[in-house]
């Protein structure tokens, strides 16, 4: 099978597939969908749409159009719920003047929703997760904790204030952060979603053949999430994430189990993790601050390849 030069697929763990369409541009594409994490179907639609768009932004790209993917138990839930979910997704894309050109729906016992998103990126702006460089600063653009908060929400143990913060976090698009990243120029990027900060950072380290050192005290978390973690509201996905990365992570003794879970927490529509030349890090942070990005924390540095991929202090 002939594969055109410049094509990038699943084998390198990038956030999107990449396909060259001319001398200056790549077509990029991603797909994501999941079960509801909030009770409000309209908000679920908005969160799912933001999450689906995120991979395009993580590659430095611009979304062109989307296709809906939905699974719905039409024999047990009213169609109005599905319509509200789809409306949430539509309104999110309408804000960006991005059309939804179709999609596919099947009957299933558990509702699910998401999108296939197709985008475009100029070759000079294509940002991979496999090109982090020694000496880079690592910057995170959203606080962590949505997985733990979602679990607490399902058990009616999250306060309205914490829920509001989590929803704001999940519906915030990564568009402005991506545009700023392109303007400043960075070396690598990925978005923080289901594998948590440690999982996605591990992918970056392994694909870039480097290691990373991060400072727990520099990492932003959604207000109230640490208390929820201490009270045991840890989703199964977060536990699986931690178990998976443990062989590749060295934790200092002060990093408790709760803190480890926070670092491995499975996120929905999380922020961008950007690897940027140390000389540009402050400018990137200052520029992001001016755009009201939820978080602009420099959380660590890229170091030469060592025995472990990640060191947490």
What can you see in these coordinates?
The structure is a single chain. The chain is of the alpha+beta class. It folds into two domains: 10-122, 60s Ribosomal Protein L30, Chain: A; 137-312, Phosphoribosyl-aminoimidazole Synthetase, Chain A, domain 2, CATH 3.90.650.10. 37% of the residues lie in helices and 24% in strands. The chain has ten helices and twelve strands. Helix 2 links the parallel strand 3 and strand 4. Helix 1 (41-58) runs parallel beside helix 2 (79-95), helix 3 packs across helix 4 and helix 6 packs parallel to helix 8. The longest helix has 18 residues, at 41-58. The model has no long low-confidence stretch (mean pLDDT 94).
Q: Can I get a quick summary?
A:
By secondary structure, the chain is of the alpha+beta class.
| CATH architectural group of the largest domain | Alpha-Beta Complex
The number of distinct β-strands equals 12
How confident overall, as mean pLDDT?
94
Give the amount of beta strand, in percent: 15-25%
Helix fraction, binned, reads 25-40%
The dominant shape is: globular
| CATH fold type of the largest domain | Phosphoribosyl-aminoimidazole Synthetase, Chain A, domain 2
Strand order of the largest sheet: 7-10-6-11-8-12-9
CATH class of the largest domain: Alpha Beta
- Termini gap: 47 Å
* Biggest beta sheet attributes: 7 strands, mixed
Question: What count of helical segments does DSSP give?
Answer: 10
Annotated CATH homologous superfamily of the largest domain = PurM-like C-terminal domain
Order of helices and strands: EEHEHEEEHHHEHEHHEHEHEE
Structural class: alpha+beta
Radius of gyration: 19 Å
């Amino acid at each position: 099978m002939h594969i055109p030069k410049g094509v990038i697929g699943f084998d390198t763990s990038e956030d999107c597939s990449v396909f060259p369409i001319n001398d200056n541009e790549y077509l990029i594409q991603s797909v994501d969908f999941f079960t509801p994490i909030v009770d409000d179907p309209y908000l679920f639609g908005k969160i799912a749409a933001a999450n689906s768009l995120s991979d395009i932004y993580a590659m430095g790209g611009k979304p062109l159009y989307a296709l809906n993917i939905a699974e719905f138990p039409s024999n047990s839930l009213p169609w109005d719920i599905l319509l509200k979910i789809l409306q949430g997704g539509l309104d999110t894309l309408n804000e960006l003047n991005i059309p939804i050109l179709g999609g596919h729906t099947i009957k299933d016992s558990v509702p699910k929703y998401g999108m296939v998103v197709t985008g475009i990126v100029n070759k000079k702006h294509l940002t991979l997760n496999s090109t982090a460089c020694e000496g880079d600063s690592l910057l995170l653009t959203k606080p962590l904790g949505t997985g733990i908060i979602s679990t607490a929400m399902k058990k009616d143990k999250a306060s309205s204030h914490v829920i509001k913060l989590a929803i704001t976090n999940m519906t915030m698009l990564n568009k402005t952060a991506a545009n700023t990243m392109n303007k400043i120029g960075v070396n690598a990027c990925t978005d923080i979603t289901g594998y948590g900060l440690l999982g996605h950072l591990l992918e970056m380290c392994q694909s870039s053949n480097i290691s990373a050192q991060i400072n727990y005290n520099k990492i932003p978390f959604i207000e109230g999430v640490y208390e929820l973690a201490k009270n045991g509201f840890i989703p199964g996905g977060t536990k699986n994430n931690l178990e998976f990365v443990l062989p590749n992570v060295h934790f200092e003794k002060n990093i408790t189990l709760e803190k480890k879970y926070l670092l491995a927490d499975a996120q929905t529509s999380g922020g961008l993790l950007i690897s940027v030349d140390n000389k540009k890090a402050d400018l990137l942070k200052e520029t992001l601050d001016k755009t009201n990005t939820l978080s602009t924390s420099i959380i660590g540095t890229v170091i030469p390849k060592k025995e472990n991929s990640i060191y947490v202090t």
